[in-house]
Design brief:
The protein is α/β, with parallel strands linked by helices and about 325 residues long. It contains 11 helices and 14 strands. The strands form 3 sheets. It has a 6-stranded mixed beta sheet, with helices on both faces. A 4-stranded antiparallel beta sheet has the order 2-1-4-5, with helices on one face. A 4-stranded antiparallel beta sheet has the order 12-13-11-14, covered by helices on one side. Strand 7, helix 6 and strand 8 form a beta-alpha-beta unit. The relative contact order is 0.14. The mean pLDDT is about 90.
Length: about 325
Amino acid sequence: MENTVVKIDSLVKRYGDLIALDHFSLEIKEGEIFGLLGPNGSGKTTTINCLLSLLAFDKGDIKIFGKEMTPTSYDIKKDIGVIMQNVAVFDELTVYENIDYFCGLYITDKAERKKCVDEAVRFVGLEDFLKFRPKKLSGGLLRRLNIACGIAHKPKLIILDEPTVAVDPQSRNKILEGIQELNARGATVIYTSHYMEEVEKICTRIAIMDKGKKIAEGTKDQLKRMIKNTETITVEVLGLTDEVISQIAGLPHIYDHSYDGSLLTVFCSGGKHNLIRVMEVLQKNDLSFGRVYTELPTLNDVFLEVTGKALRDKED
């Protein structure tokens, strides 16, 4: 039976007249990589700060590992690793000293701590930079140092808030692979990111929040089935008559279309053989066509549809 690692029940957080969290509930099971998504100002950061008892809330309950989370729940906090968007390391300490310091907050035995620090160094690939100070590191290496500081004590729950912001593709891949490996070793992960392709790649389940509420939750496939557009078909074809376009528009599961004289775009909702049906209409009318391709919805399509496409510029 799956164990619940995080349970947030009807959380309410107000800042004066602003309701940052509006009866927000969430349950995360052991072994998940759980993606928490939302536009700026949706309440993601507020949720994490409440979860960590860094922020008082007005109503609701938070339990981690089955226990109520409070500011003094040190027995719970020692099993949590936090890697926030803003890198939090000491500039005056070397790479090794930083990891050793943060690990030492949880592990006092010197021999055990050294073993954990050495493992964390190898895990993030910083063996060649142990004596470097943070200011000498590239953005990608600095992010990896930040992760090493957060996971050296081998936490059971790891919270990563935008860990790949402003890093090069190689470091980003290294970080994502590391998250998956930590999960394979037994850690439950909460992951926030604006990079939808990352979330789609590594997260086992996802919640989308907006205006302090959870508006969608499920696996990536479940979320994609929630939106109207399930397939977009594009065909390069010349000389389509209104009659042929009408035949295509009348096919099952097609809810919209466009044609600019050379490119036909068909939007489908549901159905398994939409492309075959479109091709049959073209062939029946003796029309030759060029390139044909079909696109399935991405997580970004889901995100934009359920949260709206307006630009957001507020912070959480």
